[in-house]
Amino acid sequence: MIRFACGVALALILATGCDAPGGQAAFRPERDSDGRWTAASAQQWYAAQPWFVGVNYIPADAVNELEMWQADTFNPDRIDLELGWAEAIGFNVLRVFLHDLLWQQDPEGFLTRIDQFLAIANEHGFRTSLVLFDNVWNPDPQLGPQPDPIPGIHNSRWVQSPAQAETLAFASSVTIQARLRDYVQGVVARFATDSRVLMWEAVNEPGNSDIGADAVPLLRAAFDWIREVGPRQPATASFWSAFRDDPVADAIAELADIHTFHSYYGPTLTMQLVGQIDNPEQRPVICTEYMARSIGSTFEEMLPLFREENIGAISWGLVAGRTQTYYPWTSTEGAPEPELWFHDILREDGTPRYPGEVSFLTDLLHAQKRR
Questions:
Q1: Cα separations (Å) of 273 from 230, 248, 295, 317?
Q2: Do the Cβ atoms of 28 and 232 come closer than 8 Å?
Q3: How much of the chain is helix, strand and coil, in % rounded to 5?
Q4: DSSP β-ladder status, 259-262 and 238-239
Q5: Would you state the CATH architecture of domain 7-369?
Q6: Nearest to 301 by CA among 286, 283, 313
Q7: Residues 77-99: pLDDT tens digits?
């Protein structure tokens, strides 16, 4: 493993980091010699939680994670409006992507905006899973104004974090290691005892974009850096392609405090994937991406199954907007709006694309809260 000492600077960050509202600070997980939560602590933590059901969230006016968070385009009023709609449906958790360049650009401003987002989410009853790195989509992120979406193309401007070239060069570059360590530990330390933060996701879909096993050094380092801080929230990374007998999957199985995974399949194949997770200790399981209507992953099919199996469920998308994820992965430039949306639930004005679907969600989730 690549390991780094925390040093005095990290201790100072921890000393000044925000102690959170709520009860997260009261939970102190037991850890093994590598800093991983014991399975018993992971099970204890999960048993104290509600059934998690929510969305991967980005506001409709943001084309990617940089546009969501940069000072000139961060839009708390829009976020507040959209999270009010999500609260009315009955969701209780959000998964949100950060980016290393935002820390490089303005560390304190970025932390302030994260805090502001968490405050808005908390007001609407949400806890938030924060994703630190991402191996998916465009390989060369740039700060500043973001380009408009390509008409008809699914998630056409989403960007990797860090840049793909940095992920590939990570193991041999002390400079990249130091910069990314400062980002991870700066963000995690600020919110390490904050009950508004549900968990830390080290890397989204490590190895995607043909990165393969070259994702493993950064993946391992990100877990190390999180554990040097020692947050009260669990750390994870999601199985998404191979679930075992693969360098990336094997690293996730070894490192994650709780297990998370992605599945855009229907119930039968999804449960087959869950069964492939190397999980002899029976650590809790949360699905952090699902719901793609045109290929058979729907709320009506998946949520009753996830509830029965006590698997948390975080679908992709809330409000249709600049990410255009209502188009399928295979859409072509200039394609008309599909009759059957791939992801997303609401139009930009908050009206449901499929009223019956939202009625199903509202009935199920509000009944769950009354239990």
A1: 30, 15, 16, 22
A2: yes
A3: 40, 15, 45
A4: parallel
A5: Alpha-Beta Barrel (3.20)
A6: 313
A7: 999 999 999 999 999 999 999 99
Q: How far apart are CA 187 and CA 110, in angstroms?
A: 9
Which tokens belong to 255?
């490192």
The string of pLDDT tens digits covering residues 305-321 is 999 999 999 999 999 99
The rounded radius of gyration (Å) of the Cα atoms in the chain is 19
Helix (H) / strand (E) containing 127: strand 127-134
Q: Pairing mode, if any, of strands 127-134 and 197-204? A: parallel
234-250 tens-digit pLDDT: 999 999 999 999 999 99
- Mark residue 16 as left, alpha or beta (left: phi above 0; alpha: psi -120 to 50; beta: remaining): alpha
For residues 311 and 93, the answer to whether their CB atoms sit within 8 Å is: no
Domain residue ranges in the chain: 7-369
Residues 234, 236, 237: CA angle, nearest 5 degrees: 170
Q: Residue 21 — very low, low, confident or very high, per pLDDT cuts 50/70/90?
A: very low
pLDDT in tens, 127-159: 999 999 999 999 999 999 999 999 999 999 999
350: left (phi over 0), alpha (psi -120 to 50) or beta: left
238, 205 contact by CB (below 8 A)? yes
Amino acid at position 125, single letter: G
- Residue pair 316/343 in contact (Cβ under 8 Å)? The answer is yes
How would DSSP label each residue in 169-227?
Answer: HGGG-HHHHHHHHHHHHHHHHHTTB-TTEEEEEEEESTTTTTTGGGGHHHHHHHHHHHH
Q: With 60 as the cut, is the pLDDT of residue 123 above it? A: yes
Q: How many CB atoms lie within 10 A of CB 303?
A: 22
CB 43, CB 83: distance < 8 Å: no
